[in-house]
Amino acid sequence: MRDPLVTLENVSKTFTLHLREGTRLDVVADVSFDVHAGECVVLGGPSGAGKSSLLKMIYGNYRCDAGAIRVRDGEDAVVDVARATPREVMRLRRTTMGYVSQFLRVIPRVGARDVVAAEGREGGLDAAAADARARALLALMNLPERLWELPPATFSGGEQQRVNIARGLIAPRRVLLLDEPTASLDAANRAVVIELIREKRAAGCALVGIFHDADVRDAVATRVVDVTRFRARPAA
Amino acid sequence: MSAAAATTPAAPAAVETGYNFAYLDEQTKRMIRRAILKGIAIPGYQVPFASREMPMPYGWGTGGVQVTAAVIGPADVLKVIDQGSDDTTNAVSIRKFFAKTAGVATTTRTREATVIQTRHRIPEEPLREGQVLVYQVPIPEPLRFLEPRETETRTLHALAEYGLMHVKLYEDIARHGHIAKTYAYPVEVAGRYVMDPSPTPKFDNPKMEMSPALQLFGAGREQRIYAVPPFTRVRSLDFEDHPFTVQRFAEPCALCAATGVYLDEVILDDRGGRMFVCSDSDHCEERRAAGHRGAMLAGAASGETTDA
Amino acid sequence: MREGALLEAHGLTKHYGSRVGCTDVSFDIFPGEVLAIVGESGSGKSTLLSVLSTEMEPTAGAVSYRMRGGSVESLFDLDEARRRVLMRTDWGFIRQDARQGLRMRVSAGGNVGERLMAIGERHYGRIRATAEDWLSRVEIDVARIDDHPITFSGGMRQRLQIARNLVTRPRLVLMDEPTSGLDVSVQARLLDLIRGLVAELGLAVIIVTHDLAVARLLSHRIMVMRHGRVIETGLTDQVLDDPREPYTQLLVSSVLAA
């Protein structure tokens, strides 16, 4: 088996809440797992187990207190997100690592098609390719064409989420982090997302995701990692 | 004024006033001469000087009078003009002032003068080598209206940052379709400093270029002296697509029929009657003495033809 | 200086007598990066900006800058003439108070054209055409080109400042609270405009703001200042979503959904 695209090694995270007399909240401890090309690792466990925090740590959105998060960046470069400089993380996000959240962070005055296409350009597609791919994805996500030029700020939650998924999947990035992308979708659109994730897997991407719908999870997961395993022991 | 009285000879007795020659004491004149020399050495640069109280109000030419006092000698012949005319109150007073305190000869003839003090105009007759033209300047700083801070204008001059001058001209074109500024039109001296030629009409700007005469500028209230040495390049600022031009007058002087000279409008009656006559009164008189007759004088002397 | 860096600040310190403006501030910025400096009033962020803009000399420390020609110069060793040329060609400065950043008695076109004239443009028609182009890029009706900024709204004045600064295609733009004092909807429009121009022109931007939402929307990296010192720095989303320092946690918790 080839080297994994993502490796977590003894990763730990604690929040220190200085505004609450320095209360320490242990999130996860000693997390270790790999994700290879073509895999979709689903993080399992009840809410509050630290799944979402873990995903954010891989993306560099949350800090990592201990351990290493290695992401393969190109053929033989590896970036340890836990120790990388902001500039290295920015580069990694541009070239290699995408994140699809549950919500679209709306940018005022930019139309849906361009919200999606801009992310494609950011991820390395040329303008024409980005636009073509944006149209294809929005069509696939069943977003009515009359909405394409309108800013998503006025869309319904479901419509916004479909734009968000198109945006998250447009760039040809090899590592994808999915935080409940199907939460507010109907069955038909969930099926589309399942198909898109399978395509990404087939294209050699490594995916890490959180899915509450059992049917979606079962359809996309190659492996489930139970996060409760990494529950930090309460401080003595 | 009659042509016969053009020159009044020197009258040394006038120095009995008790004042030093030309009113100012010798130390003060030396101080002013040093400023003048510095100004000549750095064409267009405004040299600060310790302006003295003069026996006339600011705005009446105190800067010019101090410069004249510092450069004039007993052998000089002084001409003073205001708006081109030798016989306005201001011109007459200053001429009398130097006749009295320096005993120098005075004249209205441009050709005969060695020192000419002026407000507004440069004589129509081309100046020659050896003559000194002294300008009375109210506001010497060309950047003043756009940049009120003196520290900043000094820096702008020091670093030759003159973009602002063009902003002013840009605004003119934007508002009027052409550069509407008709007097105090900024010039670049010797390829370096931008200078305000004081209230001189832009019509006279080309006369400053490569003039054989020494041009000195004195601003009494603002305490600045600057200079354009003889044969110095003086270029009026402009845009490539809006080049500098001087105003043209539709008709010749009504009195002497001169063309290509600067004309003043004279209201003749309260029914809209008016005429345009030479602003340079001496030039006009000389032309008339030589037999030129404008439209207003055409009928005055029978047998003479008009040039118009 | 590091390969690829546009500007590097080392140990910048500014004292006003015994009072501290900022102490030992070091950072670098690359082309195309937006760095937000956040903190409350008195945190030293404005002092830092004044030093970076060379309006004030630092008490200690140095700033290196990679010039257009590729050479690296120490900002405070440049003579005043070169420094000023740099400031009005390769740098821009968008001020909080548009009245300080604009000439209020000069038309919008003249305001935009000033930098062009300062670098020697002497063709009225070209200056005007460029001014029209920039006015439309900052969404100001070209018909207002001859109006004075005094007749403009707050948002328009800020957009005019942006046009006036960007007309010489600077590579580094300093911004001092560019959206404060504007209505929320006007702020959103301005931020969106800035975001678009920054991306389109590949500008490096150092923006001082007390508004974390502004930092979130515009910046890649963030520096949190307090009592004149940088107390936390990092990726903007990381610092705002997972602040480490007590003071940063307080800042983040005291705003609604930054």
Describe this structure in words.
- Chain A is an alpha/beta fold and 236 residues long.
- Helices cover 34% and strands 25% of the residues of chain A.
- Chain B has seven helices and 13 strands.
- The two termini of chain B are 24 Å apart.
- In chain B, 47% of the residues are buried.
- With 258 residues, chain C is of the alpha/beta class.
- Classes of the chains: A alpha/beta (236), B alpha/beta (308), C alpha/beta (258).
- Chains in contact: A-C, B-C.
- At the B-C interface, helix 5 of B face helix 2, helix 4 and helix 5 of C.
Fold blueprint:
The complex is a heterotrimer of chains A (236), B (308) and C (258).
Chain A: E1 6-17, E2 23-35, E3 40-44, H1 51-59, E4 66-72, E5 78-80, H2 86-95, E6 97-100, H3 112-122, H4 127-140, H5 157-170, E7 175-179, H6 187-202, E8 206-210, H7 214-220, E9 223-226
Parallel strand pairs in A: 3-8, 3-9, 6-7, 7-8
Antiparallel strand pairs in A: 1-2, 1-4, 4-5
Helix pairs in contact in A: 3-4, 3-5, 4-5
Chain B: E1 7-8, H1 26-41, E2 47-48, H2 62-71, E3 77-82, H3 89-101, E4 105-107, E5 115-119, E6 132-136, H4 150-158, H5 163-176, E7 187-189, E8 193-195, H6 205-208, E9 214-219, E10 224-228, E11 234-236, E12 263-267, E13 274-278, H7 281-289
Parallel strand pairs in B: 3-4, 3-5, 5-6, 6-9
Antiparallel strand pairs in B: 1-4, 2-10, 7-8, 7-11, 9-10, 12-13
Helix pairs in contact in B: 1-2
Chain C: E1 7-16, E2 19-29, E3 34-38, H1 45-52, E4 60-66, E5 72-74, H2 80-89, E6 91-94, H3 98-101, H4 108-118, H5 124-137, H6 154-166, E7 172-176, H7 184-201, E8 204-209, H8 212-218, E9 221-226, E10 229-235, H9 236-241, H10 246-253
Parallel strand pairs in C: 3-8, 3-9, 6-7, 7-8
Antiparallel strand pairs in C: 1-2, 1-4, 4-5, 9-10
Using only C-alpha atoms, the radius of gyration of chain B works out to 20 Å
From the alpha carbons, calculate the radius of gyration of chain A and give it in angstroms. 18 Å
Q: For this entry, what is the oligomeric state of its chains?
A: heterotrimer
Largest sheet of chain B: 8 strands, mixed
The gross shape of chain A turns out to be globular
Average pLDDT confidence of chain A is 91
- Helix and strand content put the structural class of chain B at alpha/beta
Unreliable residue runs of chain A: none
Query: Which pair of chains forms the biggest interface, and how many residues does each contribute?
Result: B-C, 18 and 23 residues
